[in-house]
Amino acid sequence: MKLNIQKFKKSCFAKGAILLTLFMFMTNCASFRSKKENLALEENKEVYIRKNKSERTDFFKVTDAETRWVDSIYNKMTLDEKIGQLFMISAYSNKDSLHKKEIDKLIQDYKVGGLVFFQGGPIRQAQLTNHFQSKAKVPLFIAIDAEWGLSMRLDSTYRYPWNMTLGAIQDLKLIEKVGRAMGKENKRMGIQFNFAPVIDINTNPNNPIIGNRSFGESKINVTNKAIALMSGEQKEGVFCTGKHFPGHGDTSTDSHKLLPTLNFSESRIDLVEMYPFKKMFDEGLVSVMVAHLNIPSMEKVPNTPTTASYNLVTNILKNKLEFDGLIFTDGLPMKGAANFKPSGDLELACFLAGNDILLCSENVPLSIEKIRNAYNQNQFTEERLAYSVKKILRYKFKSGLNTFKPIDTKNLLQDINPIENDALQYELYENAVTVLQNKNEILPLKDLNQKIAYVKLGDAGNSEFVSTLKKYTAVTEIPFKNIDSLNIVLKAYKTVIVGFHKSDKAWAKHDFTKLELENLQKIAKKNKVILDVFAKPYTLLPLKKIKNIEGIVLSYQNCDISQIVSAELIFGAIQSKGKLPVSIGKHFEINSGLTTQKLDRLGFSTPKNVDMNPMILSKIDSIAKKAIDGKMAPGIQILVARKGKVIMQKSYGYHTYEKNQAVSNTDLFDLASISKMVGTLPNVMQEFDKNKINLETRLGDMYPPLANSNKKDIKFIDLLTHTAGLVAWIPFYQATLDKDNKPSAKYYSKKPLSNFNIKVADSLYLRNDYRDTIMERIVKSKVSSKKEFVYSDLTFILLKEYLEYAKGKKLPEIANENFFNKLGMNYTLYNPLQKFEKKNIVPTEIDSYFRQQVIQGHVHDMGAAMMGGIAGHAGLFSNAMDVAKMMQMYLQKGSYGGEIYFSDQTFDTFNKCHYCDKGIRRGLGFDKPQLEHEGYPTCDCVSKQSFGHTGFTGNIAWADPETEIVYVFLSNRTYSDVPTGGVNFLAKERIREGIQKIIQDAIIK
């Protein structure tokens, strides 16, 4: 007995402990929910006071004509026809003829009221729309889910950013622009309803179905963005559908698979989830889509989806909130609804709850029968039916369906993919990309002379990001398999950019793998790291430690333009403007976002964003093609920039006429005389800016070896304007040829020797002492006493000698230290074969008069070649992008990338036409637009403030401060496989000038 009592006591104690534990668990769960709810209320505590219904915005006002049309249609309808209007059925343009016949039958036999299109293509959908409309007695509503544009459903269409990306943008006018663009495309496709915007407040990071589809977790941000998007679209005559009422943002279940439960009070849902709906109703939202949710606080019947809840749809949405627009159910085949009742009964329940349009019914005939029977059994009135059907007809009239015209498929693809879309996309990402961490102001990267590595994480493409990074400076991609070996390699680099690239598909998995997280932490622990995440914000949640990461950039999506814009931001071409639309654990609060410095480096955009007409600019292609086809040059590079943005960078043709290798944007061309303006002149301008020389400085004082020559009294101003009386050029090479006009063995060796070490071409080396002969000939050359213009190479040959004398360094070292390294001109150099492979250098000439070989990687200019490839007047190789950087620095009067290279005053002095009154157009080192009696070097359509230079090999680089345009044209026109008789056909046909004229014509005034 005693033993039994002890057992009983132990049993009671155990049960009590279990009950106590359960009680504490339930209490803690309630407390946790309460804390979560209180947190949400704290973050979203603003109370919205609704407008009087009469004060609401109305995009589509009622007219007498509308009422007459609606009544005339309704009064002729049978009961089944009226019921048919309640149904909007699924349609696909990528299915077979059987599907088409099924739709035909539902339209003709059951008089359904509309179609919602899913996957397919625009042309096919337009053709099907026309076909189905022709079968309908009453024109059909056409709807689509186009939350980020038609591409959500259709191929060959434009994709705008996800709502989460738009949520980072602070400028609401840009969001309205997106709405307008979407509206135009939808309208062109014959669509009346866009089931957008999603106005769910994504307060749950683990939400499996909303996530990126939401504008964020702030109800105010979500509302403002949604209103802007809606306003833009509805102004274009397309109806928006706010979804998913009353709010699907704080769920952890996908209603496509199960019925999610919202365990919040009605007051909390009214305050937070319903906030955007209430405000949008006042701002003119036409329609609402009701979600499939289980909300015990708002529907007493357990597990009743909100779509079938009379309390939610009628009592709250229609009566309390006074919404009288169209009410759609969410898709009825979704398990959140389909598990509630079988098809037919479900549709009836949703109609009785107060919905107007029943979406994607799985059994239309049965559903119509069920609703008809309910009507006949007086479960609802004629008045209730008329309320929905007449409302449907009203919006059909408002959309113009009363006078339906078939969709014209001519130019449809062009119309729904306008070139302006990219311009908007650039603006969106420029305003969205967000800097979350910037220790020691690592962003933007100012020092372009440092060694920078790029390491990729993730499994998606990164080509635009990497190629754009490399347009700013040398960035080395480091592939790796082993993290330890990677860190050994990274020791040689000062900064490591880690790009995390994931698929840009909306439903793709964006998370770091466990290994990627471990590798990132190991890289960050031992290196100075900038992490750039091209994925949704929640991707950052698993990062446990961020203190070792100096810079964190959130680029949101992994599309081409986001990659380009993000690279721009890293190097300071733009400043960061985005704000985080959601919170990221303990690391970053909502609205986090640092502003970075703009460094006035060249960026990238579209013509439209700098007020240029892209259609006119596209004519450049035909002129370039004319030059290539006419054998005026085998290959061409063209770059156009305006207002600090590169808007065109293209390559045409091939390295040679054999067409074995196409020209790429990174290939190097011989700059010829543009070397004067890019290599020598900026360094001379710095000396001038430091008051080492002035306009009156004499050449003998600048360079003492000339102190006793006939050139000692030449003034600096006359030297730079080519009015010093110097001879035009000296053909030094001619004296080194034998009787057969071949390189003489007296002066050349086929291999390098101690006294033959000046390489002038492949397997051709000049005597070392011949440089002295060249300088002696220059010093002894004649000087004319006439004050007239004679363009002379000797000017810049002597300026190189001056710079090297004054600096105690060779010109390449001077140019690299002062400009090329700082500007990120990593493709600009003398003797390029010392750094680049021959395949990366465009050949310049088939030399049959001096070196007797194809000249590739060696300077074309004979004198410069005989000076070792380094001369003040020629010798530089570069590409259009690098030349543009120098021209932009000039355009900005000596500043670039946050550094001042010389003063505004110095630039103005050098850019001035000092002797225009004497008929001499030149600035100091710069060429200027032609005067009235000349036809060269420009299109005669640029401003007098413009400046630049041409090059003998077929080049021009020109900048215009008045229009803020930089134009670079590089070619190898001197490479010819047929005799030209000395005719420069590129110049004769005015190819460069013709392109410049197109650029000027493209300016939108």
Structure summary:
The chain has about 1000 residues and is α/β, with parallel strands linked by helices. The protein has an eight-stranded parallel sheet. A six-stranded mixed sheet has the order 9-14-13-12-10-11, with helices on both faces.
Provide structural commentary.
- The protein is α/β, with parallel strands linked by helices and 1005 residues long.
- The protein contains 34 helices and 30 strands.
- Strands 7-6-5-4-3-2-1-8 form an 8-stranded parallel beta sheet. The protein has a 6-stranded mixed beta sheet with strand order 9-14-13-12-10-11, sandwiched between helices. It has a 6-stranded mixed beta sheet with strand order 15-17-16-30-29-28, sandwiched between helices.
- A hairpin with a 2-residue loop joins β16 (635-642) and β17 (645-653).
- α13 crosses α14 and α24 packs across α28 (794-807).
- It is elongated and about 120 Å long.
- The N and C termini lie far apart (106 Å).
Q: Which terms would index this structure?
A:
34 helices; alpha/beta; single chain; elongated; 1005 residues; disordered N terminus; six-stranded mixed sheet
Specify Rg, calculated over alpha carbons: 36 Å
Task: Please estimate the helix content.
Answer: 25-40%
Number of helices: 34
Mean pLDDT: 94
Helix and strand content put the structural class at: alpha/beta
Overall outline: elongated
End-to-end Cα distance, whole Å, is 106 Å
* Main sheet summary: 8 strands, parallel
Fraction of residues in β-strands: 5-15%
Residue stretches low in confidence (pLDDT < 50, at least 5 long) are 1-41
By DSSP, the count of extended strands is: 30
Please give the order of strands in the largest beta sheet: 7-6-5-4-3-2-1-8
